[in-house]
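Researcher: Here's the sequence for the chain we discussed earlier.
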Amino acid sequence: MERRANSKNKAPSKTETDRKCRYNSKYALTSIFICKECGTPYRRQVWSKYGEKKAVWRCENRLRNGTKYCKNSPTYDEKVLQQAIMNAINKQIQDKNKFIGNFKKNVISVISKDTTTEYDSQIKELEKQLVNLIKDNAHNNTEEYEEACKEITQRIEELETNKIKSLGGRDKLNNAQEFMDNTNIYMSEYDDTLVRRLIRNVIAVSENKIEICFQNGVVVEENVDYSQ
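Model: Thanks. This is the structure I predict for it:
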């Protein structure tokens, strides 16, 4: 199931998660993997048993306080969790229009480094509007809300395209579109760099389910399959 971002999952902003999380940032999930029950970031641990080591992810609140404030947060095997995330990414990549949208953001970040354009302030203002809209509709998912999110997102995309044109990056987008039209891409191995670029938040919903919010605002539910 796929939808636009809705803060019912209570995922904190990047600033909030960065402030809360003080652990090793070499793992992309450290700052974006959030417990749906209490809103606290997850933390990576390595378990050792009978000489074998296994990496898992657990709610930091649950680790600190037991079940006092967070009673039902699941523990995730890292390999299984990573596979679920890659499954979701691959589904998005197969939808080439969405992938190009994310590629567009990466083009912007590269060609506009240390460069300010007339579009930046407008984009930032629209992004703030989108965040506030999501917060104000934390427990609603009405048609009016969906349309408002869609309209703001489209306006941001238009401004980003204009920004790329103004900075001479149109050829890069055209090349990416041509590449995607002639390529069937499937990412088999988990990649932290890819996760940082494409994903805004991962929400721990239950032992067998996570929600993934992509940078383009699309939210998908993905099964965590321990049978593989």
